[in-house]
Amino acid sequence: NAVALIFDVDGTLAETEELHRRAFNHAFARHGLDWHWDRAAYRDLLRVTGGKERIRAFHARQQVASPLSDADIAELHRIKTAHYAELIETGCCPLRPGVAELLTAAKARRQQIAIATTTSHGNIDALLSRALGAGWALDFEAIVAGDDVRHKKPAPDVYLEVQARLRLAPSDCVAIEDSANGLVAASRAHIPVLITRSIYFRDDDFSAARFVLDELSELTDEHDTEKQPHAQ
Ligand code: XBP
Ligand code: MG
What keywords are assigned to this protein (predicted)? Predict the structure, then answer.
């Protein structure tokens, strides 16, 4: 029974990680690096959340003649982010099945909706303005991104910040996530979690989740996301 639904973005609202991966590879090539992250490597690298952090972690494992500075990493990430927006703009990354319907149903039930993600406000806006239209953010009560908090997932910071902004108890919320990192982050904030399995995290351990679905289109009343807000 939830008063608020808190959505992760990457992998949950849309299968964005392939676009992130392509955008990273584009940035490496543009920067003259011979790095290439294939799907198997990227699956492993996704354990490190955050794009800058992921580049830094990979860099630390390489034998590079001239190490990258923080400014190089920031520049790589800037190129990556710009290319990601271009890829999203082509329209090749629709919302996952059941996402638009759940957002509409939540609005009709006067449930609050919020976002707790590792990615940036710019990337969320690129995805959701394409999928939901320019005014999409008006429907969301709180939007907390990775750089808004001190520690990214699996730390609970983004979830604690959303909760503080909504002024709700964790048990009044449901987090909708696709990864073990996301599950751990929400669980550390004591928020129950509904998992919608995505391409890259299919084999993660979701035993701590309240529910595990393949798609949000499988949601039914028994999944408990439907409590009306208390009358004021
Ligand atoms: C998503 C991520 C992000 C994206 C890249 O995690 O880990 O790092 O891969 O985003 P979650 P940026 O879905 O658990 O929030 O490059 O913008 O950091
Ligand atoms: Mg995710």
Answer: Hydrolase
Using alpha carbons, select from 96, 122, 70 the residue that is nearest to residue 16.
Answer: 96
Atom from ligand 1 closest to the CA of residue 122: 17
Q: pLDDT tens across 73-83, in order?
A: 999 999 999 99
Listed in sequence order, the residues at least 6 apart from 89 whose beta carbon sits closer than 8 Å to its beta carbon are 126, 130
From start to end of 145-230, where are the E strands? 173-177, 193-196, 211-213
Catalytic residues, which ones?
8, 10
Q: What residue ranges in the chain does DSSP mark as E strands? A: 4-7, 112-116, 142-144, 173-177, 193-196, 211-213
Q: Does ligand 1 come within 6 angstroms of the Cβ of 96? A: no
Residue 120 reports pLDDT greater than 90: yes
The label of the residue with tokens 């449901």 reads 174
pTM of the model: 0.94
Question: Does the C-beta of 10 come closer than 6 Å to ligand 1?
Answer: yes
Atom of ligand 1 nearest to the CA of 146: 18
Question: Residue 232's pLDDT band (boundaries 50, 70, 90)?
Answer: very low
Q: From ligand 2's centre to the CA of 51, what distance in Å?
A: 13
For each of the domains in the chain, give its residue range(s) and CATH number, in order of start: 4-14+95-223 (3.40.50.1000), 17-89 (1.10.150.240)
| Cα 154–Cα 160–Cα 164 angle in degrees, nearest 5 | 165
Residue from 6, 20, 159 to probe ligand 1 pocket by mutation (most atoms less than 8 Å from CB): 20
